[in-house]
Amino acid sequence: MSNENQLKQIAINLARKGKGILAADESNPTCKKRFDSIGVESSFESRNEYRDMLFTSNKIEDYISGVILFDETLKQSTTCEEKIPFTKLLNSKGIIPGIKVDQGVIDLEGFPNEKATNGLDGLDKRLAEYYELGARFAKWRAVITIGDNIPSEACIYANAHSLARYASKCQQAGLVPIVEPEVLMDGTHTIETCNTVTNKVLKIVFEQLHMYNVLLEGIILKPNMIISAIDCPIQADIEKVADLTYACLKENVPENVPGIAFLSGGQSGDLATFHLNKMNEKYNDMPWHLTFSYGRALQYDALNSWKGKKENRKAAQESFLLRAKNNSLATFGSYVEMLETR
Question: I want to staple 278 with a disulfide (CB 3.0 to 4.6 A). Which of 10, 194, 242, 321 is the partner?
Answer without folding.
Answer: 242
